[in-house]
UniProtKB/TrEMBL annotation:
CDD domains: NAT_SF
Protein name: N-acetyltransferase domain-containing protein
N-acetyltransferase domain sequence ranges: 1-207
Annotated catalytic residues: 124 (proton donor), 410 (proton acceptor)
Assembly and interaction partners: Homohexamer; trimer of dimers.
Amino acid sequence: MEIRSTTDEDLDVFVDTLHAAFGRFPETPAEGGGGVWWSALEMDRNLLSMTADGRPVGTAGAYSFTLTLPGETLVPAAGVTAVGVLPTHRRQGVLSAMMRHQLAELRARGEFLSVLLASEAPIYGRFGYGPATYTQRLTVPRHQAAFALPRAHGTAGAPASGSDTGSVELLRRAECGEILEEVYDRYRRTQPGALSRPHRWWALGAGQPPLSPAPRYIAVHRDADGVPDGYASYSVESGTLTVDETITTDDAVFTALARFVLEHDLVTQVVFKHFPPEHPLRWQLADFRAGEVSDDTDWLWVRLLDVPRALTARGWFMDGELVLDVDDPFLGEHGRYLLTVRDGKADCVPTDGEPDLSLDVSDLGAVYLGGTAPSTLIRAGHIRAHRPGTATLADALFRADRSPHCLHWF
């Protein structure tokens, strides 16, 4: 078996092989090659697995993203995608060989983080990836969508905290591409766990709505000066209003957009498709039980390719020191590191000291963005704490300034 990099000439073979692996057929691209999810593939970052007689049997790809870490640090991250093996060649080591080859290529590029969305949860843990962000669906019946009166008040003469002085404008997807791109870019720079959406994704209509050209209404929020500072992308079908995503950096703007869709006439329910697990909207409803949570699931999985570089890249929010004993069985590597945090910055160096925590590299990926508490994995039997108090310290150290959330699909 040969694993080789692809070129632009391999696009059709790559796409056909990938779709065959999942038992599907490719859509027909729009004129100009856009409008389908694979139109943004970076062919110089993709791999084909070939048999000895030259038949393609497996695919793996990667996108060039920027990931926002706790502390609003922006770092490059490889977004692994388009991974598939033909049914005729599964359980023969093809996937493992491609994953090992890909990780070596990412390191050769100087990248220290890799991320993906897992089609099946059991697959990627064995390759060193851990679930680092979570998302859920929130469904609110229209007749139970009334908002409670806020109990907190501002100081005399000042507006209450979180009050909104802007306005909402209704547009169609085709009318506001630049607005969506600009608002999303501002949002992802402040949201831990968020990924960049390169301009070519928007230009080609790659991915899911509102990136794709699928018909959508867009509720654009503008601040008091008329500057767009948030949007909600939605569609209505059979009495259900489905919100693809709500994007803003401001809680008051999110509330204004939520009010807009929840007060929509001639719908029976509103579904927020990508809802941050710790968002306060349910508390803002007069009936707390009105918001029904479902599809509570993992989203972004993270893998560290260089432990010291990754740990020193993110921001930290308390001082402390831990010795981490990290095992990477897939790559046959093992390292012990002294993590020292002072004034929001970390130093991470090899050490022979006694470990505080022993963990798999996939566990380190899970806690890296602050979305999974180390104590949870200790209680689950995945991470070993070697002395009392270590779990509490690790939870405090690895927490994020904001709960990480990713809604970009790739």
